[in-house]
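Structure first, sequence second, as always.
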C-alpha cells in the first residue's frame, strides 16, 4: 500500500468515526444525554436485567433509591460523599454519649470532622481544649457552656435548640446539660482528622503531673490532690449547676467580658434568603464575629422544593441533615454526576466548586446544615449566573430563545419557589 492509498484509508476511517460519533450524539435524548445511559432505561427490552436476585439488605437499600436505580442523567462515579452518625459507634458514659465521623472513616471529608453528642441533665463534658476550632449547633434541649480567652476573660452562657457556639483552637471550655432533659448537639472541628476522643483533658494532665509540681503550681499542699481522678472522666454525671447569673458573677474578670459573644442564635436570627419554597439563614464572621474559621447556613426546603443548583467557590461543604428526606446530585468534570439520598442524622460532603442541588423528596420540611471551613459564606447560583450573562451568549449555548431565558430567576434565590 503506497502513502497516498494509506492516507485515503485513514481519512475514510476518521470520517466514519466522526459520523458514528455524530449519530451517537443525535441519538441522545432529552433527559438522557449519555450513551449508554446508567439508568433503568437500559432494561426496557429486558426487565429481568433490572432485578437483584442475589443477597441484599432491603432495609438499607431502601434508604438509597437513587443508588439502586439512578437517574439516566447520572454518569460515572465519584468518591463516596455520604456518611451517617446513625451507624457510627457511640461512646457511652454515665452522663451521656458521643459518636463521631472523621476523615478516618469518611475519607472525602478533609476540612471538617463531625461529632454528635448527648449530655443528660447535669452531665458534663470534661473541661478540655482542642488543637482545632470547635463549632456547634444545638439540635435538642439546653446546655451551659464556659470558655476562657487568652486575655483571661471568662464567658458563661446557656444555649438552647437552634443556637450555635464557637471556640477557637486552644481555648479551654466545658459543656453541661441542663434541665429538663439535658442536650444534644453536633460539633464540627475545622480539621478533618480531629478526633473528639483525642483532646487535651484537665484530669489527664493533673493525673500525669507529680504531686509536688501541682503543689508548687497551685500553692496548696500536695495532699490536697490525693483524691483527684487518675483517668480521664470524659463525660460524667454531676449535679445541676446553679443559676446562670451566679456562675457569670463567679468568673467575672477585672478585664471585663470578651469583646464578641461565643454563642449565636441561628434559627432565631435573620433570614438571609426566603421564597415560598423555603429559606436560608447564614452565620459567618460578618454576624457571628468570633467564628473566624467556620461559616454555616441553615437551609429549610418545603415539600417539593429544591435548594437551587449552585456551588461554593471558597470552601468544601460539610452537610448535616436534621429533618426530612433529601435527594442530592453532585456534578463534577468528566462529566460525572451522581445522585444519592439523605435522611436525619446523615452527613454529606461536596468538594469546593462542584455543582449540586438538594431536592426535598419527602412529605415534611427538609432541614439541613451547610458548614464550611472559611470565615465567609459564599455561593454561586446557576440561574443568577445565566441571567447575568448576555442573552445571545446563553442562547448560543442552550438553544433557548431570549424570552425564555428572561423568565429564569434573576437572583441567588437559595431555595426555589414552589
Amino acid at each position: 500500500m503506497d502513502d497516498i492509498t494509506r492516507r485515503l484509508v485513514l481519512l475514510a476511517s476518521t470520517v466514519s468515526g466522526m459520523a458514528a460519533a455524530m449519530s451517537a450524539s443525535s441519538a441522545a435524548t432529552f433527559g438522557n444525554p449519555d450513551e449508554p445511559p446508567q439508568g433503568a432505561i437500559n432494561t426496557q427490552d429486558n426487565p429481568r436485567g433490572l432485578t437483584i436476585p442475589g443477597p441484599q439488605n432491603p432495609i438499607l437499600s431502601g434508604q438509597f433509591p437513587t443508588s439502586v436505580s439512578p437517574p439516566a442523567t447520572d454518569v460515572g462515579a465519584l468518591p463516596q460523599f455520604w456518611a451517617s452518625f446513625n451507624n457510627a459507634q457511640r461512646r457511652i458514659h454515665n452522663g451521656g454519649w458521643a459518636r463521631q465521623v472523621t476523615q478516618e472513616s469518611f475519607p472525602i471529608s478533609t476540612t471538617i470532622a463531625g461529632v454528635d453528642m448527648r449530655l443528660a441533665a447535669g452531665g458534663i463534658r470534661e473541661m478540655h481544649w482542642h488543637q482545632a476550632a470547635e463549632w456547634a449547633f444545638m439540635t435538642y434541649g439546653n446546655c451551659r457552656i464556659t470558655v476562657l480567652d487568652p486575655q483571661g476573660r471568662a464567658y458563661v452562657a446557656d444555649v438552647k435548640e437552634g443556637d450555635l457556639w464557637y471556640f477557637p483552637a486552644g481555648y479551654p471550655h466545658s459543656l453541661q446539660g441542663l434541665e429538663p432533659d439535658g442536650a444534644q448537639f453536633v460539633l464540627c472541628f475545622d480539621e478533618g482528622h480531629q478526633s473528639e476522643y483525642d483532646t487535651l483533658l484537665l484530669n489527664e494532665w493533673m493525673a500525669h503531673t507529680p504531686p509536688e509540681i501541682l503543689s508548687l503550681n497551685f500553692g496548696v499542699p500536695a495532699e490536697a490532690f490525693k483524691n483527684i481522678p487518675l483517668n480521664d472522666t470524659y463525660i460524667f454525671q454531676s449535679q445541676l449547676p446553679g443559676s446562670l447569673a451566679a456562675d457569670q458573677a463567679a468568673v467575672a474578670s477585672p478585664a471585663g467580658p470578651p469583646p464578641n459573644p461565643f454563642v449565636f442564635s441561628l434559627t432565631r436570627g435573620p433570614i438571609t434568603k426566603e421564597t415560598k419554597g423555603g429559606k436560608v439563614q447564614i452565620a459567618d464572621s460578618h454576624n457571628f464575629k468570633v467564628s473566624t474559621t467556620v461559616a454555616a447556613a441553615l437551609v429549610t426546603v418545603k415539600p417539593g422544593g429544591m435548594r437551587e443548583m449552585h456551588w461554593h467557590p471558597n470552601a468544601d461543604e460539610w452537610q448535616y441533615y436534621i429533618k426530612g428526606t433529601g435527594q442530592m446530585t453532585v456534578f463534577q468534570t468528566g462529566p460525572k454526576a451522581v445522585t444519592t439520598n439523605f435522611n436525619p442524622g446523615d452527613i454529606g460532603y461536596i468538594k469546593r466548586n462542584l455543582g449540586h442541588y438538594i431536592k426535598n423528596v419527602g412529605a415534611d420540611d427538609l432541614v439541613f446544615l451547610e458548614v464550611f471551613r472559611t470565615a465567609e459564606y459564599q455561593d454561586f447560583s446557576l440561574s443568577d449566573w445565566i441571567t447575568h450573562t448576555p442573552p445571545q451568549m446563553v442562547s448560543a449555548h442552550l438553544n433557548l430563545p431570549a424570552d425564555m431565558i428572561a423568565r429564569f430567576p434573576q437572583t441567588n434565590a437559595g431555595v426555589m419557589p414552589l
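Margin note: Residues 3-27 form the longest helix (25 residues).
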